[in-house]
């Protein structure tokens, strides 16, 4: 699939609907534009789970959680 698009007066470009549909891009989707040697690469922005979910997924021992809480409350950072 090859398309030619133009940049409008405001500096915006519109991607063809059939290309967006083929990629599964929905309205209001956030995409990432990466500059490459040959042009640009457009990809989906990966959403990250909240930090609390990331920490909970680490399966740290309970003693580590208790120690972390104690040190945090004491103001210890390292």
Q: How do the strands of the widest beta sheet line up side by side?
A: 1-2
So what's the overall shape?
elongated
CATH fold description of the largest domain: Pemi-like Protein 1, Chain: D
Class by helix and strand content? alpha+beta
In DSSP terms, counting alpha (H) and pi (I) runs of 4 or more, how many helices? 3
The arrangement of helices and strands along the chain is HEEHH
- Report on the biggest sheet: 2 strands, antiparallel
Model description:
- This protein is an alpha+beta fold and 78 residues long.
- Helix content is 33%, strand content 15%.
- The chain is built from three helices and two strands, in the order H-E-E-H-H.
- Strands 1-2 form a two-stranded antiparallel ribbon.
- The longest helix has 13 residues.
Fold topology:
Blueprint (H helix, E strand, L loop, with lengths): L16 H7 L7 E6 L2 E6 L6 H6 L5 H13 L4
Supply database-style keywords.
single chain; Pemi-like Protein 1, Chain: D; 2 domains; two-stranded antiparallel sheet; 3 helices; 2 strands; 33% helix
């Amino acid at each position: 699939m090859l398309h030619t698009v133009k940049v409008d007066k405001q500096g915006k470009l519109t991607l063809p609907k059939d290309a967006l549909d083929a990629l599964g891009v929905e309205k209001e989707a956030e995409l990432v534009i990466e500059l490459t040697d040959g042009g640009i690469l457009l990809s989906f922005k990966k959403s990250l789970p909240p930090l609390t979910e990331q920490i909970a997924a680490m399966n740290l021992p309970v003693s580590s959680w208790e120690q972390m809480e104690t040190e945090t409350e004491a103001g210890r950072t390292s």
